[in-house]
Design a protein that fits this description.
Elements: E1 3-9, E2 16-18, E3 25-27, H1 33-36, E4 45-51, H2 63-76, E5 82-86, H3 92-102, E6 103-104, E7 110-113, H4 126-138, E8 140-141, E9 144-145, E10 150-154, E11 157-160, E12 165-166, E13 175-176, E14 184-186, E15 190-192, E16 206-207, E17 215-219, H5 226-233, E18 240-245, H6 255-266, E19 270-275, H7 288-295, E20 299-300, H8 306-319, H9 323-330
Parallel strand pairs: 1-4, 1-5, 5-7, 7-10, 17-18, 18-19, 19-20
Antiparallel strand pairs: 2-3, 6-16, 8-9, 10-11, 11-14, 12-13, 14-15
Helix pairs in contact: 2-3, 3-8, 5-6
Length: about 350
Amino acid sequence: MKSNVLIIYTGGTIGMVMDPKSHTFVPFDFKHLYQQVPELGKFDLNISVNSFDKPIDSSDMNIEDWVKIASTIKENYNDYDGFVVLHGTDTMAFTASALSFMLENLNKPVILTGAQLPIGVIRTDGKENLITAIEIAGAKQNNEPIVKEVAIYFEYKLYRGNRTHKYNAEHFDAFKSPNYPILAEAGIDIDYNYQALNKQVGGTLNVSSAMNCNIGVLKLFPGITPSLVKSIFSIDGIKAVIVETFGSGNGTTRKWFLDEIEQAVRNGVIVLNITQCNQGSVEQGRYATSIGLKNAGVIGGMDMTFEAAVTKLMYLLGNYSDIDEIKKLLQLNLRGEISC
């Protein structure tokens, strides 16, 4: 049987074409998708399109938009074998991470992709990204989807969504997954890394739309002032703060800093330690400069990306009320976001 694939167009560069009158890039009507990408007609797949009424730049992506994407997948889940989400590149890793937590018991592929150049440009990378993302979304083995998770496909590589971050704004290979191997690589064939792919989980798909965004971010730097640190932890209604530390989770050992952290923890604020490094893991206690954070009650984020840390906190704060339970779940691998 042919696989059914649903394309969900949210906006972004991939859906832009040149308006011959204004000579500016404008979103094209995805009803005419086959005119822009005639190669899709050669697929032995049934392809449908669901477009946002008003395409949005990914820099404007918000929790409500994540809920809309997740709800669209839920509403069409039984009718399609896979989903392709067309999305701007700037916040694609955030959306992929958020969807990985929101789509509970996901057993089908949700592939996000986009482009660095509009699909209406001769040298666009959008066509290949779209074509291969659709092929992966419809791929089956023994009548089962090969990919059963949220992933990003970009420039011939498939990445786990919540392990990915955008690292390049100029080149076609815009994304990296520094702490987890690629899920597949497209060449003459699509070579799947079966050991790295998520294994099937049980249960019925459920969309968790409760996301609490009352979190803050404190990025450490030499010379950081007590007033800045205090202002972050004093934000009205703050539930959690991500502290971006140096190296393997290190920070200043100055007493005023550790006192501020400890007081925040006593006040019920969850403090999560994420490294500023693009690759590597937080290991609190490995060096003396992180022992104080550990003793103050800071949670080590291990090798989570910043995007995964933000969206995981939003998800946990939105769905759990017990602080101790949230702290425990932060340290558990829920959707493949942490290396076991």
